[in-house]
Amino acid sequence: MTYGTFDMFHIGHLKLLNRAKTFGDRLIVAVSTDEFNLTKGKKTVIPFEDRCEIVKNIKSVDRVIAELSWDQKIQDIQNYEIETFVIGNDWTGKFDFLKKYCNVIYIPRTEGISSTDLKKKLK
Ligand code: CTP
Hints:
Blueprint: E1 2-4, H1 11-21, E2 28-32, H2 34-39, H3 48-56, E3 63-67, H4 73-79, E4 84-88, E5 103-107, H5 115-122
Parallel strand pairs: 1-2, 2-3, 4-5
Residues 4-7, 12-13, 16, 42, 87-88, 90, 109-110, 113-116 line the site of cytidine-5'-triphosphate.
């Protein structure tokens, strides 16, 4: 399982999802809602429904759910019987508390691209 915003879907997102899939046989992606992003001070360009549709159509993705809050992860892991939680290494250490429930793997980020950079370039 992995979590993210996936705004202005880019190659870093694709590589993260493809790599995540190699750790298991099914990949569930929690895509953060526009409302949840606003609570983090993040304004998305692409609406939640469209971001979900894009992520759902990536070959390595088996299911998309909504990420509504910071504190749903333990329940998601239990509900979906998750064996491995995967996220980019910009989050290293931040989700170690999930190690009680499943494997936690931090994947190296793709250098030189992010949704924030893309937004800046378009300004
Ligand atoms: N990710 C990655 N490589 C990048 C950008 C993102 O591996 N160059 C990963 C993140 O580490 C995360 C997932 O993709 O596990 C979703 O990240 P998200 O925050 O949606 O993407 P960013 O491009 O980092 O967005 P922002 O600039 O808004 O933080």
